[in-house]
């Protein structure tokens, strides 16, 4: 870089770096990141002969636009989206199981309120993980009857749970 370009770069820095840095900190809230953005902005000005040929005062708008675009690019980058900056590693929240226990008690009460035929089909199919054919074979009833009892049993179960305030 010729001596004249060195002088122009120093002039650009002196004229714009402090206000550019404050602008970037205002946008990002990150003083360390602002240093990087200002450095990159000045580097781009140094690499652009057209900018170096202008007077330092006329490059201000260009530099602020470049800095703003760099801030936007950084915010959109994959690295930034997947990074979570925290002072301490957060504790993992684990469920104490109270809600699940309460819900299972409500479902158990609602199931107990069904007649035996409907309850048996629901328990075999949903809690036993069996197919319609397997439930029919185990209970010794036709598959159509299993489907019918499942339909009406689930309907009765839904109504019982609605009465307890569990579902809409």
UniProtKB/TrEMBL annotation:
<comment type="similarity">
    <text>Belongs to the sigma-70 factor family. ECF subfamily.</text>
</comment>
<dbReference type="InterPro" id="IPR036388">
    <property type="entry name" value="WH-like_DNA-bd_sf"/>
</dbReference>
<dbReference type="InterPro" id="IPR007627">
    <property type="entry name" value="RNA_pol_sigma70_r2"/>
</dbReference>
<protein>
    <submittedName>
        <fullName>RNA polymerase sigma factor</fullName>
    </submittedName>
</protein>
<feature type="domain" description="RNA polymerase sigma-70 region 2">
    <location>
        <begin position="12"/>
        <end position="81"/>
    </location>
</feature>
<feature type="domain" description="RNA polymerase sigma-70 region 4">
    <location>
        <begin position="110"/>
        <end position="158"/>
    </location>
</feature>
<dbReference type="InterPro" id="IPR039425">
    <property type="entry name" value="RNA_pol_sigma-70-like"/>
</dbReference>
<dbReference type="GO" id="GO:0006352">
    <property type="term" value="P:DNA-templated transcription initiation"/>
</dbReference>
<keyword id="KW-0804">Transcription</keyword>
<keyword id="KW-0805">Transcription regulation</keyword>
<keyword id="KW-0238">DNA-binding</keyword>
<dbReference type="InterPro" id="IPR013324">
    <property type="entry name" value="RNA_pol_sigma_r3/r4-like"/>
</dbReference>
<dbReference type="Pfam" id="PF04542">
    <property type="entry name" value="Sigma70_r2"/>
</dbReference>
<dbReference type="GO" id="GO:0016987">
    <property type="term" value="F:sigma factor activity"/>
</dbReference>
<keyword id="KW-0731">Sigma factor</keyword>
<dbReference type="InterPro" id="IPR007630">
    <property type="entry name" value="RNA_pol_sigma70_r4"/>
</dbReference>
<dbReference type="InterPro" id="IPR014284">
    <property type="entry name" value="RNA_pol_sigma-70_dom"/>
</dbReference>
<dbReference type="GO" id="GO:0003677">
    <property type="term" value="F:DNA binding"/>
</dbReference>
<dbReference type="Pfam" id="PF04545">
    <property type="entry name" value="Sigma70_r4"/>
</dbReference>
<dbReference type="InterPro" id="IPR013325">
    <property type="entry name" value="RNA_pol_sigma_r2"/>
</dbReference>
